[in-house]
Amino acid sequence: MNALPPIFHHLPAVLTISAFAFFGCGSSGSEDSDSDPPSCITIENSTEIEGDTTLDSDCYTIEAILSIDHGTLSVSGGTTLHFSNGSGLSVQGAARLQVIGDTDQPVVLRGTEGERGLWRGIYIDSPGPHQLEGLQLQDAGGDNWAGQPHLTRGGIVVGSDSTELQIMDSHFRNNEYAAITTATPDATIEVSRSRFEDNDFPLRFHANHLSGIDGDNHFVDNRTNAVLVHTDEPVLRQSTWAALDAPYTFDEIVQIKNLVTIEPGTTLSFRRNTGLDIDGGSLRVDASNAQPVRFVGVHDTPGSWRGIRFRNTPPAGNQLTHIEIHHAGSERWVQDWGNSQAAILVDQDGFLDLNDALIADSDYHAISVRDALLVGCEALRFENNHRHSVHSYEDDESCYD
Q1: Structure pTM?
Q2: Which has the closest alpha carbon to 136: 164, 157, 155?
Q3: Within 13 Å, how many C-alpha atoms sit on residue 121's CB side?
Q4: Structure confidence by residue, pLDDT tens digits, 89-121
Q5: Distance of CA 325 to CAs 106, 180, 255, 275, 307, Å?
């Protein structure tokens, strides 16, 4: 093991993950190989690895949970770490993790057998910054690292609000629960040029982290092929949500309190009674002359999800151009106001510029407006909505007649 000088001072304060296919696993052969090569160095307890260490031999077998709390642990391209049942890697305190692989010489972290969830994965609970490039991670996610299993389980779990993580040109496959999970809303995470294949979920993220997912990632044949937004913490950062080859799926109502821009061609799907609540922030979609942005229910039945509400928003702050909304209107946004049940609700000093939109299969109104302003109304189309296309009150300014 070689001493590793400090090298992270000039890295960007983010974590980027890139995706591409890896076919080599160091000296272990193909990614489907289940046997350890005889040349593996066995690490039986965490005291055998300390910070400021480089792992650069062909092959290691890890039989414990390695816990690094200081210095930098660096893993060189061409190195394979085989993790036994229940083992894992925890990066805590002031420790940093650096993976330096590439297409020809990836860094492979995998189970000693090719069983989904055989080992625990990587837990990152330190500021970093951490950089993972050319990583191939598989067979992990078998157990949670802390309380609340839905937040601390996956191939990689980000556990600290102060973490800065950049992942790129990497491949995640055969991981139980999720390839990557965020346990806190304020970490800084970037994932780019990476491939997510045959995981339970590819990503389980807070809404604040969606802006760090680049459109050049690929999501293929995962058991649930969607980016799951798994908590209800608000979006506090100015964000752009990229068009992916998998939908964003929302498990809770998410408030938007800053500017969120959604790229053309994006699909957002919503579970029962969830939706987007633009409260003090702004939502912008301009898919003119491009693929529409689609807001749909996970289930294609009327009233599958709640819808989108605009309230307390900046004047001229919200724009929806060339969109589709399907299956909304499941519940009232305001319990004592029946007309608040709508695919789009604009109320409480809200503003919306809406054009070139299809709203279909709402279980109540398509649009409802009260104490708010609706403008635009060019090329609006309504299909199979249960009540009114647009419901508004006499004193409200609505462009729809």
Answers
A1: 0.89
A2: 155
A3: 33
A4: 999 999 999 999 998 999 999 999 999 999 999
A5: 42, 29, 18, 11, 8
